[in-house]
Amino acid sequence: MTGMADSLTPRGIADAYVDAMARQNPAVAASLGLYPEDERQPDISPAGFDADAAHARTALAELDALPAEALADPAEAACARLLRERLTAELAVHDAGDHFRSLNNIASPIHMVRAIFSMTPTETETDWQRQIGRMAATAASVRGYQETLAEGLRRDLVSGPRQVATVIEQLGAWFEDEDNWYRGFAAECPEAQRPALDAAAEPAAAAIAEFRAFLRDTYTPAAAGRPDTAGRELYQRSVRYHTGADLDLDEAYAWAWTEFHRLEGEIRAEADKVKPGATPQEAIEYLETEGHAIEGVEEIRVWLQGIMDEAIEALDGTHFDISGKIRNVESRIAPAGSAAAPYYTEPSLDFTRPGRTWLPTLGRESFTTWQLVSTWYHEGVPGHHLQLASWVAAADQLSTYQVTLGGVSANLEGWALYAERLMDELGYFKDPGRRLGFLDEQMLRTIRVIIDIGMHLGLTIPADSPFEPGETWTPELANEFFAAFNGCPKEMRESEIIRYLGWPGQAIGYKLGERAWRAGREAARRAAEERGEEFDLKSWHMRALSQGSFGLDDLVSELAAL
């Protein structure tokens, strides 16, 4: 990895940290495509979290010991600033003990235990032998996390009851339900190795069942009656971790309401184009029953692949340069037991595992498409895939850390939402149904800012709101607000609320990150005009995609200077 030969620079220290974490945590190694021979599962016991934190402290101490001249190079200084901010934010989360109560439906530590199987190869007999080893290591990893949550009970650091109930339900889809994750995974195993995989899966399934029983019989009574919300102190800490900024949360909440009112007007106008005279909800119901739909799980996977392939062909050479391995992105169906929202997984460092978009089917066989086009611009191209694959391709020019572990959620999600808005600007939502889908997705991300901040901080609904003005936010009110002003189906809406409650501060990064990306582009455009130059959007895009990660504290100024 870049910088490993010279650890006495910020980039050298950063990349040594990446390597240390990859050796410590096999889930990190798997996500990067490193050390494929490692058959371990992540250590998510209290000792494992402490070991992760120790690597962060070592890297920070090495950074502190650097002489001033080591920061003379602006590229080195940028890497140092990112590394310091990220590790400081991570240690604040660790030292507060937030891992002792981390349960949510999309990204809690227990989810890494299953995710590692989708991040590691399954092409050869050797690959499958390693998967058998990982399956054999699963029980110890699961029991390690049970130990972590049990320690949280002893420290009175307990997750909320909604998150607990959701994870209990999800774990049933790993091994127990009729259409479970393991059945689909094992179906791809070579026949000769299947008995060994099944034998390894027995203790894994037993450990999951044991963990579910612990959550049901021990943890659930302890969580009963506790708030699902975080409170200001935990929330502010989590916001710093997810955004790379100490945000003015009251300003963000007020700004989101301004966006809500703007979008509500646009949505009403677009709904009338979908079906003259229809309200937004009536237009959505029309699209759900009469709009374009794809029948069949494999058929929707292929259709979504086509959306990304078409975007690559249309945007390459006009607004981006999309070449080489960056062009390779796969559409996949999410495994059983996933949360309801689509998601993306980045390519390995050597691109042997491509970037992948994932659609949870939620048991459906028929899929309306009015929302999915905008979502796949977000998850695929020009969204997550184009940014993260471009980062991987630029790792040699930056550092491995800046394009992997140093990623800031609000930067990533902000770019992906900016990508949706860009496609609207470029005229890719001429069909009123698809444009209503785009606007509905924008409203979704705006609602996230409102209810995520509102629920966790216990804020009141403003007087000019069309929904329950003066009331204090609760999860129940958030669900009603969601239903009234967004087209998410019920199961996804409920999954979203659980996600916000269990992952505080992450969901606000989409819209606030998009605001930063748009502000940075506008500042760069103005600067070009002041120099008497024409602003070259394609050139700006390519420079922006090659700069690596920044938190929101730095993102606007960095984009403005491009």
TrEMBL record:
Lineage: superkingdom: Bacteria
InterPro entries xref list: DUF885 (IPR010281)
One Pfam family of this chain: DUF885
Protein name: Uncharacterized conserved protein, DUF885 familyt
